[in-house]
Write a structure and sequence with these properties.
The chain is α/β, with parallel strands linked by helices. It is built from four helices and five strands. The chain is about 35% helix and about 25% strand. The protein has a five-stranded mixed β-sheet. The longest helix has 13 residues.
Length: about 120
């Protein structure tokens, strides 16, 4: 896993750039939860490259299962998807709904994602 622990404005978060095996299941999500727990951090910034293709296909249920684990363990997650136009209409609709949440949101750039994470 390619990640970095970052401190900004007295707040620490974990930024995951990529994974050897992209996040594709609840178990993969639990690995990220464990990483957060080991470092006593509850803020996570995930890049598009860290997620599997199945994450972006709602019918697989991967996205819902992964996000639910973050919610269950009270980890706030910002997910960066630079080119959201490439996503399916259904996934874009889900993003619109998700972006009303205080627990997880989707962003097109790092600056906005970090700002949301550290200034809730």
């Amino acid at each position: 896993m390619n990640y970095q622990i970052i401190s900004k404005d007295s707040t620490r978060y974990i930024e995951v750039f990529s994974c050897e095996v992209p996040v594709n299941s609840e178990l993969d999500a639990l690995d990220l939860v464990a990483l957060c727990g080991e470092n006593d951090i509850d803020l996570l910034l995930l890049h598009y490259e860290a997620l599997s293709e199945d994450f972006f296909k709602l019918k697989t249920g991967v996205a819902g299962a992964v996000i639910q684990n973050f919610i269950n363990y009270r980890i706030r997650v910002a997910i960066i998807i630079p080119d959201q136009e490439q996503l399916s209409t259904n996934f874009k609709a889900w993003i619109s709904e998700a972006n009303r949440s205080s627990q997880y949101r989707f962003f097109s750039n790092s600056a906005d994602a970090v700002d949301w994470l550290i200034h809730p």
